[in-house]
Amino acid sequence: MAKHRRSRAPKMTYAHAALGAAVLAGTLVPTQAAQADTAPAPQDKSHVAAMAAKTDGKQAAVKQQQRVPAMPTASTVLAEAKKQIGVKENSSGGGTKFQQWYVNSQRARETVARDGGSPRAYANAAWCAMFVSWVGEMTGARPQVGWDAYTVAHAKWFKSNERWGTTPKPGAVVFFSWSGSKSISSINHVGFVEKDNGNGTITTIEGNTGNGAVEQRVRPKSQVVGYGYPQYSGA
């Protein structure tokens, strides 16, 4: 069993005693005694300010990160597009959720101001570009995919943003001209590239194709005017 050792008085006790003696002797006034015993060490204010600024900077960075949503990936956009396969228009060429969404969107008012007509006219209009725009909206990719009801204007938007080219990539927005022309003004149709088949064709997901439905198609590259490249995450 360990022996019990008496604790010794800390050395500070003697220092305090000496300090008290000095006070009694009149060699140190009481206020000096108090200051000598209790006054904190002076702080480096520049260091404190630097630490506060660093903390504020980290908090601001975290808040900024929370406000800016992550950009979607090409696979996210393609998955949403594929989920729509089979959706069809009615006998009047309308009735799809893509058209209905566009009619009620801010973009409909903007494109009417540009092209004329009325927002209600989009309810039964050709909807391949509205389908692409809707998928962008639903996946949070609208700033990357763009939104329009007019294929030519949509293609020009990609080109003006320097995101236009001739290489098929998954998730790219593909613009077709059935005549085989490479002029943007000749564009007839639009969809998403799913993959390059490596044999002169691409697999796509398109709205308003076949009998007015969303379908997966295989198209010859010879009918492609160009591709718009959304700035997906990781791209």
Describe the protein.
The chain has 9 helices and 6 strands; from the N terminus they run αααααααααββββββ. With 235 residues, it is α+β, with helices and mostly antiparallel strands. It folds into 2 domains: 56 residues, no CATH class; 155 residues, endopeptidase fold (from Nostoc punctiforme). Strands 1-6-2-3-4-5 form a 6-stranded antiparallel beta sheet. The N terminus is likely disordered.
Q: Please indicate the percent range of residues in DSSP E strands (runs of 2 or more).
A: 15-25%
Radius of gyration: 36 Å
The CATH superfamily of the largest domain is endopeptidase domain like (from Nostoc punctiforme)
Shape: globular
The second-level CATH architecture of the largest domain is Alpha-Beta Complex
DSSP summary: helix tally: 9
Mean pLDDT: 82
Overall structural class, as computed from helix and strand content, comes to: alpha+beta
Assign a percent range to the helix content. Answer: 40-55%
Highest-level CATH class of the largest domain: Alpha Beta
Main beta sheet strand tally, sense and closure: 6 strands, antiparallel
Outline the low-pLDDT stretches. Answer: 1-42
Oligomerization category of the chains in this entry: single chain
Whole-Å distance between the termini?
A: 71 Å
Order of helices and strands: HHHHHHHHHEEEEEE
Give the strand order of the largest sheet, numbering strands 1, 2, ... along the chain: 1-6-2-3-4-5
